[in-house]
Amino acid sequence: MGHNYRDFAYDVIVVGSGAGGGMAAHTLTAAGHRVLMLEAGRDYDPVAETPMFQMNHEAPLRGAGTPDKDFGFYDATVDGGWSVPGEPYTTAPGSEFLWWRSRMLGGRTNHWGRFSLRFSEHDFKGYSRDGLGADWPMNYDDLAPWYDRTEALVGVCGNNPGLDDMPDSSPGVLQPAPPPRVPELLISAAAKKLGIPTAPMRRAVLTRPLDNRQACFYATPCGRGCSIGAAFQTTTSLLPMALATGRMKIITDAMVCSVSVDVNGRLNSVVFIDRHSRRKVRLSARVVVLAASACETARILLNSRTNTFPAGVANSSGQVGRNLMDSTGANISGHVPALEGRPRYNEDGHTANHLFIPWWGHQAQARGELNFPRGYHFELGGGFSPPGMGIRGSDSGYGRSLKQRIQQKYGAGVGLALRGEMLPNANSYMEIDERVKDQWGIPVVKFHWRWSAHELNQVAHGLKTARQIIETMGGQVGMPDQSAEAAIKKGGEIIHEVGTTRMGIDHRESVTNQWGQTWDVENLFVMDGGVFASNPHKNCTLTLMTLAMRNADWLARAMHRRTL
Length: 564
Ligand SMILES: Cc1cc2nc3c(=O)[nH]c(=O)nc-3n(C[C@H](O)[C@H](O)[C@H](O)COP(=O)(O)OP(=O)(O)OC[C@H]3O[C@@H](n4cnc5c(N)ncnc54)[C@H](O)[C@@H]3O)c2cc1C
Ligand code: SF4
Prior knowledge:
Layout: E1 12-15, H1 19-30, E2 35-38, H2 46-49, E3 80-81, E4 90-91, E5 101-102, H3 121-124, H4 126-130, H5 140-154, H6 182-193, E6 199-200, H7 238-244, E7 248-251, E8 254-261, E9 267-274, E10 280-284, E11 287-290, H8 294-302, E12 328-335, E13 355-357, H9 362-366, E14 376-382, H10 399-409, E15 413-420, E16 429-437, E17 443-448, H11 453-472, E18 476-477, H12 484-487, E19 524-526, H13 541-560
Parallel strand pairs: 1-2, 1-11, 2-7, 4-17, 11-19
Antiparallel strand pairs: 3-5, 6-13, 8-9, 9-10, 12-15, 12-18, 13-14, 14-15, 16-17
Helix pairs in contact: 1-7, 1-13, 5-13
Flavin-adenine dinucleotide is lined by residues 15-21, 38-41, 71, 100, 102-103, 107-109, 111-115, 254-256, 291-293, 296, 300, 495-496, 528-529, 539-541, 544.
């Protein structure tokens, strides 16, 4: 890490050190290539800096979120969140969009939820089935071996439940799933009565040691970062592994603003702002991989206007910034008397849900019984979590009887968080806001956003189903009936934004081919969620890393053959 890079000879510049950039750099260095990584955020040491062992009561406001630390005082995001000081973004009138950025080495992998579900053939070919959105330019079978390799390297726990929504991993790839918690078993039993299956959540958390990383000891919130490396983040795995080859150099505090092409249309340089000196630095490059996150990568391309590419480099299709998708999201919670007053014991587990509800409606959709085309899943919440801020809920009063009521109810709340597929639509996209520049002088992103009836009908179905599940448990839903319009989260709020440089088979309708290579500039690649052709309900990052591994391997081979 540092700024002494002039003496380092490199083959590839990788922009961004998060999920996509980390995987690209690991794959390229393992194949013998030399990588210079440019990262906008500051250096970050997950061992020295994580507050994983602190207790909420030691923090101001008992650890509650503030505009500086949106997800709580101890969240691992050291620079950023819903806002980054000096780096605004704008939204068009009538649009609501939230953009989470982590300006730090490792990006958002330091604190992501680590839910890691494979897409299936069904997910890759939605357009062929119902004429909506776009197909991916490859099949599930092309990606299956790469999913195996990614899961084995990253370390994913879970099982193969044999459900149509969950393709199997090869034998021996997954780490054992931790046992379900009591509230999850109760939800599972209720869901079963309604014909809805549950399965162990697949999560990028080690339940067995791997390489230099230790197994989870089930005691500390993963969102604060994991110094023992059990919860996957690039700062404890892919980046140290790539550095250990001696073939990678990382420059932190390097805010890339544009790329440029020569008269032959080949990319020849990358420009970044050194955040310390505030000076512009131009570096020449043989090959560039952009993995700055979907919207930041599209921003770099749109801000790179040349004579050959007046609308932005690699944007002859006009698709850069278009097809912006997030996951749908909605929460329902309730109180379950059957869980009241149960014996106290440690139910922490690996922080997040051990069981979840995969999408069970493929057959019903095929029969035309549902009024929305794409599926969703439920992430489950419940259990004895460490007490946080004050008293929540409807209890009022004081003294001993209030304490007794709260103790009685402790651990009896459950929650179902819906995450669903969104289809791309013409009203949801990003562009450059020519009126506003950030503190580095770089024009910022402007978001346009609208959900369509596909997503609203899906969320309405989810709200009804979640209510049925809680009521089947004998519980009471703790919130009034809400319309889908009121319940659906804002665009970007689920932090699965993808699609802004989508891949495809036709250069007129997509930005890259199936290898993440831009159609227009052969030595320019995208290896973040920008390349997604659709956004299935399954959290995007496992597929993002799988594509980065596969496509960096393809790139490495092309460079060895010197076809690039
Ligand atoms: C709280 C939270 C929970 C989440 N939970 C899940 C989950 O359970 N499952 C899941 O699949 N996904 C989850 N996600 C999403 C997941 O974190 C992202 O999909 C993933 O990190 C995206 O990888 P990326 O490489 O595209 O971007 P990032 O991981 O954000 O990395 C991009 C990097 O590029 C750097 N960068 C940005 N702009 C520039 C620039 N101009 N120049 C140089 N560098 C730049 C950034 O600083 C950053 O380090 C979650 C995210 C959050 C915040
Ligand atoms: S619960 Fe496990 S995976 Fe999560 S931070 Fe703690 S040790 Fe790491």
